[in-house]
Amino acid sequence: MDSFLIALLIAYIISLLFHINPWLRLCWVACLIISFIGNYWHPIRIFWLTLPRDLKTTKLLPAKFFLYKCKRHNKSVPKVFKEIAFKYPNRVMFYYRDDVWTFAQIDNFSNRVTNCFLEMGYGKGDHVALMMDNRPEFVGLWLGLSKVGIISVLINTSQRMETLIHSLTVIKCRALIYEPEFANSIRDVINKVKNINPLMEYYIYSDHVIADDNRDIPSEPLHQLLDISSNKYLDTLYDINFGDTLFYIFTSGTTGLPKAAAIRHHRFLWMGALIRSTIGIGLRDNIYITLPLYHTNAGVVGIAQTVLFGTTVTLGRKFSATHFWDDCIRYKCTVAMYIGEICRYLLAQPDKPVDRQHNLRIMFGNGLRQNLWTDFKTRFNIKQIIEFYGSTEGNSGVANITGKVGACGFLPRCIPPWLCQLIFPVVVVKVDPNTREPVRDENGICVPVEMGEIGEIVGVVRGTDPSRAYASYHDSEATAKKIVRNVLAPGDVGYRSGDLMEMDELGYLYFRDRMGDTFRWKGENVSTTEVEAIIQKAVGLTDCAVFGVPIDNCEGKAGMVVIARLPNAPIDMKKLYKTLCHELPSYAVPVFVRLADNIAVTATYKLNKQGLEKIGFDPNVITDELYVLDKICESYVELTHRLYRQIQCGYVLL
């Protein structure tokens, strides 16, 4: 309260004591009210605008209560699924192409998996890798394995060579289950995998006759083994606990090769319940999922809705822009999942009558760009878009449940800070741009950002609360690097997301960038150090810098590499393209290549990636040789001024 307001208040009290003219007292009262409003109008306005939104955070309570009940009764995912399958045995669990799977059928299939692997000598604590595209049996396999405590390791089917070798061996798996489509990828690495893990067994799962060229991998036909296994239910579920590991999902983290994040039963239960209560998904809904099930979005958040709560899911083998709306209409879907790239590809399709003939009431996901949001919602008549933010291993998830264009979530503004930190301990902290470490006050506590500033989103870890837990990596050293201490108070512990957010005055959060040696492209996190190692192996031991560059109207950043040319050693662009496509996942192959005489370094002799990123891939600025990936020509071709304009205008989809 300022001195003018205090003076007015004192004057008014004196007027009451000395019976001064009532009209004068009235003027003083008016001045007092006007001054009060003037001083406190901004917080009053913020309170008024955010109160209805912040009250919606009470939607967390049903999810918290569900998790509390599961913890109290030591329920695991297969235990909850057993209850759902018993309650809705004939209800459709999955629509997949022309197939229909009921809960009873998936339950029976998963029981066959359990009995089959028990008979082959597998038991609790063993690890089995799954390398499969979307299909109901994918869920049935990890569900059946989990019934006896076998931990699945979900492999990204885009991985190749060194990355795939790492993923198959970083956790000592007893077996790999794969589909015939991925036999070539496995054939390329099987000798090195055998050298590291000679005891790994291979099982091929296919609903058709296996081609001769797949028989050189020593594999057992799993589908045949399951056909002769019993579907009898066993009491092994009671050996599986609330805090046990359900499966591993690979995430890039912020540096190096993919890291295996442990998804425990309580995390699967919490993430599924949280999204359900926040979005309002019900039994009458039918969720269309085309995102890969080896990722958290579809494999945990989406699949949990059917495994835990009985909602029907329509599975697409892979995303297809031409068939997306046809499938939504055919299967009468009411909810669909997205990532930003899906929305952009759908907008790039020609207008069709089916664009608005669907029954979708909600689309939820992440990565929808602010400049595409309104166009997407209007063109396809989507009633509600719910953007959320989270990570496989993190605990700093937020959601935009009000439809604020461009925001990925919010932090409450009406709730007092001490109470907000108690029930929703997520904060955006300032980060030193040079050291990438949190900025701290004189007491050593992290400093929150002011409105309009950009900082790192951090979630406080609370050991007694499974909803605030951090899904640790299989690698303990990698886990330790993600921990920060003294976030909100002395002695507390937080999870560093590595993601930079900007917060506006109403508390809405906007994703701005990734920290560390990663960038996001095609819905995947790309490790620059991993790509640099492959490129150096391909072109010789020369300097190269990999980083992400923004493209107009594209989500994330496209990969770009600057290579320092060696004297008298020309680079064959076609050979480079083939090598990178063979060695790297498709999303990690650089889109742009720049050949330079040398690469500038910083004062500490590090490659100046920030300077290179600012220049980007503009041929109007760059005089060096500049190339762009061309999948049709299967090579890198010269990036001309005309091609540059077409890319920036969206005429060329990358």
From TrEMBL:
Keyword set includes Ligase: yes
Location(s), subcellular: Cell membrane; Peroxisome membrane
GO biological process: long-chain fatty acid import into cell
GO annotations of cellular component type: endoplasmic reticulum membrane; peroxisomal membrane; plasma membrane
Molecular function as annotated in GO: ATP binding; long-chain fatty acid transmembrane transporter activity; long-chain fatty acid-CoA ligase activity
Protein name: Very long-chain fatty acid transport protein
The entry's keywords: ATP-binding, Cell membrane, Ligase, Lipid transport, Membrane, Nucleotide-binding, Peroxisome, Transmembrane, Transmembrane helix, Transport
Pfam family, one: AMP-binding_C
Similarity comment: family membership: Belongs to the ATP-dependent AMP-binding enzyme family.
Role, per record: Acyl-CoA synthetase required for both the import of long chain fatty acids (LCFAs) (C14-C18) and the activation very long chain fatty acids (VLCFAs) (C20-C26) by esterification of the fatty acids into metabolically active CoA-thioesters for subsequent degradation or incorporation into phospholipids. The transport and fatty acyl-CoA synthetase activities are genetically separable and are thus independent activities. Esterifies VLCFAs in the peroxisome matrix. The VLCFAs are actively transported into peroxisomes by a PXA1-PXA2 heterodimeric transporter in the peroxisomal membrane.
Its membrane topology: Multi-pass membrane protein
Chief place of localization: membrane
Positions of the AMP-binding enzyme C-terminal domain: 530-605
Catalytic activity field: a very long-chain fatty acid + ATP + CoA = a very long-chain fatty acyl-CoA + AMP + diphosphate; tetracosanoate + ATP + CoA = tetracosanoyl-CoA + AMP + diphosphate
Claim: Ion transport is one of the keywords in the record: no
Alphabetized PROSITE patterns for the sequence: AMP_BINDING
Domain AMP-dependent synthetase/ligase: 82-463
